[in-house]
Predict the 3D structure of the following.
Amino acid sequence: MRTKITTLEGFNRNKIVNFKQISSDPLINLKKYDEAYTLLGASLDKNGYPATGLTEDFQEAKSGSKIPKKILGTRREMEILLDLEEGTLKNNSNFWSSFQIRVGSESLEWDLRNPQDLLKYLFALGQSIVCDGLKNIGLDANVEYVLYSTEQEAEERVIGRKALKRAYNLAEELDIETKVNILATYGILVDASNINSIIDKIDEQIETDPEEFLIRANDGFLVTRSLVSKALDAGVLTMQDGAIYHGEIILGYDRSTAAENLAKNETLQKILKAKMSGDMDILKAAFREEPKDED
């Protein structure tokens, strides 16, 4: 998720923002290299210019008037705040060839009332490898840095604890078969008779990511997602180029669509279960069943 600040008009600068590297350089974490750091410089925009995070002046429609209002972009506003000559912060300026943010092992703290810190903040927002907010870290695999506030950090911890509590409470209510199905969606296939092992592995998934566990546990296609995973493991279903096959018939072009299509075909569900069980009588009975007519 990318935040775009087009003007400082109405923007609340009365706050502290933190900036840190998500996956730190290994050297940064070694105590004997306390002075080690990395540098964040400008990436290039689609036109080949430095991505500064700043905007140019623009026109905005004014209510009740045919004449649009001119709004100062953040580039000119920052030049005024920093007492710089007009044009100094344009994206084709030499200013950006040497502008870098030095990041060490500790998070940086920027007071947005300070123009220098505000410039760093706007610049960081303009880099594709920086995300705004802790909750957005996992949305882009290319993200290396994060901007966040102490309030956000506290909020994330509270949300995380609430999710953990909900996940554990839900797990207590689930029967063993459902827990086995949930584990299968993670690719973890277990013996349903080994109850302690099942509980232990469920707890591991909850501790790793309680919100992901809640999503899987409440999935309307949980049973068929589990069946797809088990059938693939048993070789009853096969995967080729991402598509899931039953024999020569494509069940779905990925696990999700395969599970959704399987949910519509109870006969095929019985056939897959029969094939995995190896019970020929059950298999013959499944093949004799006619698919139910849909309304």
Remarks:
- Confidence is low (pLDDT under 50) at residues 24-33.
- Residues 16-148 form one domain.
- The radius of gyration is 28 Å.
- The CA atoms of residues 98 and 220 lie 53 Å apart.
